Amino acid sequence: MSAIQHTRLHGHDIAYRDLGDPDGEVLVLIHGMAGSSTTWREVLEPLAQRFRVIAPDLLGHGRSAKPAGGDYTLGAHASLVRDLLAHVGVEHATIVGQSLGGGVAMQFAYQYPELCERLVLVNSGGLGRDVSLILRLLSLPGAELLLPVLAPSFIRDTGNNISRWLHRNRVRPPRSPRCGPPTPRWPRARTATPSCAPCARSSTRAVRRSAPATGSTSPPPCPR
Fold first, then answer.
1. What pLDDT score was predicted for residue 186?
2. How many angstroms separate the Cα of 16 from the Cα of each of 88, 127, 172?
3. H/E element, 30
4. In 10 A of CB 64, how many CB atoms?
5. What is the mean pLDDT of residues 176-183?
6. Closest CA relative to residue 1, chosen from 56, 38, 51
7. Each residue of 38-51: pLDDT tens digit?
8. 1, 59, 63, 205: least CB-packed within 10 angstroms?
9. pLDDT tens for each residue of 95-134
């Protein structure tokens, strides 16, 4: 995985990864709650073969600063991503967000539509009629004090080590059994009852004549 880089934005140290073709199309990968740029470790190198990939550690996450009085709202995270793109000389990009990062990505697209070429959401928070509990908690006063406690470095590193061990040993969660192709459901033929007896008799004869050729069971319209 590419080396981590650092810059100073909004008065805080921000860590990020920048790899791939400097002149290529840009993908910005935004991780989720208690994650970091290592969330994308399995796809960073493959994506970098075709794109320029930028993966930041959001404020309060990964190797970025975790100030006690920091602003951890979605709007603040979106502004940080904007300023990071300006720092690395990117004018527009495809924004990819996972979990909390999906909420940040949507906020980014809303605040800075001229910078967002495409929006990709992966198991995103902030979708639906109700805002998820996590995103609501992040908007409460004092959330900036709680976030560094929820994701201290030793817990994050332990989780990453366990994840890498599971991956090396090919341990995967069980998948649901694959189902065969669904049985096609053909629309039920509509029938109509003509309003007069002569039309009923003629429509019945017409259906019997046309059924072998067309498969239709609907009588012709009443001529009266």
1. 47
2. 11, 26, 28
3. strand 26-30
4. 24
5. 48
6. 38
7. 999 999 999 999 99
8. 205
9. 999 988 999 999 999 999 999 999 999 988 777 666 666 6
Task: Count CB-CB contacts under 10 A for residue 101.
Answer: 32
- Going by their DSSP bridges, the two strands 116-122 and 93-98 should be labelled as parallel
| Helical segments of 30-152, H only | 41-48, 74-87, 100-111, 133-138, 143-150
User: Bigger pLDDT: 8 or 71?
Assistant: 8
Asked if residue 93 lies in contact with residue 54, where contact means CB atoms within 8 angstroms, the answer is yes
Pairing between β-strand 93-98 and β-strand 26-30 as defined by DSSP bridges: parallel
pLDDT at 81 over 90: yes
97 φ/ψ sector (left φ>0, alpha ψ -120 to 50, else beta)? beta
Kindly give, in sequence order, each residue whose CB lies less than 8 Å from that of residue 94, ignoring residues fewer than 6 positions away. Answer: 25, 26, 27, 28, 116, 117, 118, 119, 120
Tokens of 99: 């979990």
pLDDT digits (tens, 9 = 90+) for 201-216: 554 454 444 444 444 4
**Does the global pTM surpass 0.85?**
no
CB 1 within 8 A of CB 17: yes
Whether the CA torsion 192, 193, 198, 201 is positive or negative: it is positive
CA distance 118 to 45: 21
- The 8-class DSSP code of residue 40 comes to G
**What is the CB neighbour count within 10 angstroms for residue 79?**
18
Alpha-carbon torsion 19, 73, 33, 15, what sign?
Answer: positive
For 184-195, how does the pLDDT look when each residue is reduced to its tens digit (9 = 90+)? Answer: 554 554 544 455
